Amino acid sequence: PAVGGRGCRALKAAVRLDCMMKHASWRGLLAGQVAIWTLAVGGLPLAAGQGQVIRFDRPAGKWVEALPVGNGRLGAMVFGGTSRERIQLNEDSVWAGPPVPVNADNLGPKLAEIRRLFFAGRNAEGEQRVAREILAPRISPRSYQTLGDLWIEDLDAGGGEAADYERALDLQTAVATTHFRQGGATSRREVFASAPDDVLAVRVETDRPDGLNLRIRLDRPADFATRAEGNDLLIMEGRAQHDGKQLGVRWLAALKAIPEGGRVRAEGNDLRIEQARAVRLLLTAATDYNFDNPDEPLTRDRRAWCLDRLAKTAGLEWAELKARSVADHRVLFDRCVLDLGDTAPELAAKPTPARLEAFRQGAEDPDLIETYFQYGRYLLICSSRPGSLPANLQGLWNEHLKAPWNSDYHININLQMNYWPAEVTGLPELTEPFFRLVQGLRRKGGEMARKLGCRGFAASHTTDAWQWAALMGRPGYGMWPFGAAWCTAHAMEHYRFTGDREFLERVGYPLLRESAAFLLDWLVEDPETGLLVSGPTTSPENSYRFQGRRLHLAMGNAMDQMIIRENFENLLEAAGVLGVQEPLLDEVRAALPRLARPQVGPDGRILEWGHPYEEAEPGHRHVSHLYGLHPGRLINPWDEPDLLAAARKVLTYRLSHGGGHTGWSRAWIINFYARLLDGDAAWDNLRALLAKSTLPNLFDTHPPFQIDGNFGGCAGIAEMLLQSHDRRGTIRLLPALPKAWSRGEVRGLRARGGFVVDIRWREGRLEGARLVSLLGNRCRVAWGDRTGEWPTSRGEIIELDGRLRRIR
Ligand code: FUC
Q1: pLDDT for position 794
Q2: Which of 33, 328, 371, 479 sits at 20 to 30 Å (Cα–Cα) from 306?
Q3: Measured from the CA of 664, which atom of ligand 1 is nearest?
Q4: Side-chain-side CA neighbours of residue 135 (13 Å)
Q5: Given this model, what pLDDT does residue 43 score?
Q6: Neighbouring C-alpha atoms within 13 Å toward the C-beta of 451
Q7: Cross-strand partners of 614
């Protein structure tokens, strides 16, 4: 597999330029930005990195050893079996269906009574009434499901041992390869999911004199029928469901086999390939899922749609199909490069699981960290493209009919974390599915808000493809109408990074506004302090001890208060940018100074709940009361330092009680320490993420597999190298550089204000930086105590030396 080397630079630059030209009209890229990208990274030599391949020396024995490919919508896990290959398939809209939870009408008066109970200190009674009177019953299961499996059986394999086996995923090309010798012949397979051609493409090749003798099969654990059509086509179709209930999405997958030499024929419900030198298998799928309104399924002819797609790609030579896919992927992937130094050659030559094991034992492996970083970007490119559904709890990859947590969209941390790396690592357009989902939540989230007696829209701790918003299940997770409000913060951040005013006007402002409308009505005056508080809510999903009981709900929880303040401030900022004036903004201005602020408890920690309750689980995986430190900015060392020390204490306390035990929780902690400017603590937690919460194929594990930690870990690495969240938008170079990363280089990170940033360092000291201004904003840069500030014009390059002096 291709490993980037210095010799490849010219080629890489040429490919990139070529991609830029082909994709100059890419949705989501700002006008003129494409050319500037070329300036920003195209003109520079890329750092050599061996950190871009995940490698195995044997077939996958289990699913978490298989290698993921995806084009946003279609995904596959490649096992690399020798005589029998399994390629597990996904299509992102294969969901078992409604019904979804719905709240009862007219909850406002009940809520008011319950609030009075909490204000009177009758928390247990209040919580019971929430469970009985407010929350809708949970309806389960209603899961994202596997599309099925593609099996490729070698009928001539003869069971002999395979030699020279290698299986690899090249993150830069997004091609998974399997290579081995068996019975004197060499076999080679390539698998990729092409975004431009919207097919999953597989090619099997042999140098065996009498060619390939294969059986090709499509199946699924349940609820499907497969038939062969003509000589070369398999059609598999069905409806996602659970035991004839939760009837959901209707789906159809089509596979076309194209032998090179030899022939293909149908045999029962399978295809047979005979005497072929190679065979290409093209697979696509269509469903009746309607992202714009899941309650009204699409009526398109799924078979015709798939056959049309296959007809369009069947004529392409393999090399061309692959080149188109690779070029498209690299437009995104090559935007950012990380080099943390070289791994010892003996270690670098080992398969990924062995390297992971060595890392666990304390080995230094900078390439592995680079791979982990780039894998986060890779997985986002593969699971979230404009037009696809958002990356779910497993991204796109799921072999179950009933997945853990239904592989849904948890919005009390998990979905948000999936998108943390998007802006800062140069993948802003991949947020489109996220925002489309949040926009979709306005329908049912508006109905829910009305039932609570509020304007605007809100959503609870989780949702799924059916875009429901109900408060449901148990108080400990379900009583939390802040999921959507948190998501609206991403809209403001997207604007800060990209300057995309059209987005802010069309998507961002309406989301912020409708969320603010809800929050204004949701807030209630605390009779004791006269301040505005949220509640009763859970502080996701922790509990406290109260009069001998374990309770979850309280008033004025720190996270709610911080999300509200942030939403209000964001709305005012957005209104300022767009020149909007409307009465709702006056309400927000009036409410802001009355909002209760997070408090510090007697032991110096930020209080999680409005009162100093004792946590029932002091090492809890959520660290919700640090929302303002990360992803928010309400606690930061420069212009909001008040709670900084109290935030650090929260972390130390959590960690000393076993915190960070799930992958995503550990990933969040990396980001927290980066924001506390503590590079060494961030690095300790990054090490722990790889050592304790990473599976053989580098998927994150909760356990079980859950992808958020991959994304949170990737974002955390970026956060250690670059931050730009203070109120002046200062671009801080290497704010949390650990001692362990004494030298390195990163290119193509993005800062708020629209800057592409390259940084080089040696012996822990800045050696130079290069910033490209995409939007022509003022450029304020800091490294340690030094700062510099320059006006810029669009496309201007600012080159700095190690003392932040401008050298160009
Ligand atoms: C949140 C977490 C759980 C899990 C679930 C999918 O609710 O508390 O740990 O990650 O999402």
Answers
A1: 97
A2: 328
A3: 10
A4: 25
A5: 34
A6: 21
A7: 545
Structure-token pair, residue 279: 């065979």
C-alpha 395 to ligand 1 mean position (Å): 15
Burial 626-653 (b: 16+ CB within 10 A, else e): bbbbbbbbbbbebebeebbebbbbbbeb
* Whole-number pLDDT of residue 16: 39
Which residues line ligand 1 at a C-beta cut-off of 6 Å?
A: 393, 405, 410, 412, 414, 477, 541, 621-622, 662, 664, 702, 706
Give the Cα separation of 531 and 559 in Å (integer).
Answer: 16
**pLDDT-flagged residues of the chain (< 70):** 1-51, 159
- What kind and span of H or E run contains 585? helix 583-591
- Residue whose CB lies within 8 A of the most ligand 1 atoms, among 411, 463, 482, 702, for a mutation test: 702
**What 3-state DSSP class applies to 315?**
coil
Q: Which residue puts its alpha carbon closest to atom 8 of ligand 1?
A: 541
CA distances from 423 to 417, 605, 797 (A): 12, 31, 20
Would you state the structure tokens that stand for residue 165, as one six-digit string?
Answer: 């086996």
State the pLDDT at residue 272.
98
Closest-lying ligand 1 atom to the alpha carbon of residue 662 = 9
Q: Is 437 left (phi over 0), alpha (psi -120 to 50) or beta?
A: alpha
CA of 664 to the centre of ligand 1 (A): 9
Looking at residue 349, what is its pLDDT? 95
Cα Rg for the chain, rounded, in angstroms?
Answer: 27
The ligand 1 atom nearest the CA atom of 708: 10
Separation of alpha carbons 113 and 571, rounded Å:
31
Tell which one of 414, 482, 541 to mutate to probe ligand 1, the residue whose CB is within 8 A of the most ligand atoms.
414
State in Å: Cα 663 to ligand 1 middle: 10
Select from 451, 327, 462, 446 the least CA-distant residue to 390.
Answer: 462
pLDDT at 160 (0 to 100): 77
Say how far apart CA 177 and CA 223 lie, in whole Å. Answer: 31
Respond yes or no on whether the N-terminal peptide bond of residue 536 is cis (omega within 30° of 0). Answer: yes
Candidate of 140, 393, 413, 707 to mutate for ligand 1, largest count of ligand atoms within 8 Å of Cβ: 413
C-alpha 418 to ligand 1 mean position (Å): 13
Q: How far is the CA of 709 from the centre of ligand 1 (A)?
A: 11
Count how many Cα atoms sit within 13 Å of the Cα of residue 776 in the half-sphere of its side chain: 4
Choose which residue among 393, 405, 666 to substitute to test ligand 1 binding: the one with the highest number of ligand atoms within 8 A of its C-beta.
405
Query: CA–CA separation, 480 vs 540, rounded Å?
Result: 8
Question: How many other β-carbons are positioned within 10 Å of the β-carbon of residue 801?
Answer: 13
Q: What pLDDT is stored for residue 51 in this prediction?
A: 53
**Residue 141, pLDDT score:** 86
> Rounded to whole angstroms, how far apart are CA atoms 151 and 169?
19
Quick one: pLDDT at residue 157?
83
Per-state percent for the chain, helix, strand, coil, to nearest 5: 35, 25, 40
Instruction: Say how many C-beta atoms besides its own lie within 10 A of residue 618's C-beta.
Output: 13
Written as one letter, the residue type at 442 is R
b/e 406-420 (16+ beta carbons within 10 angstroms → b): bbbbbbbbbbbbbbb
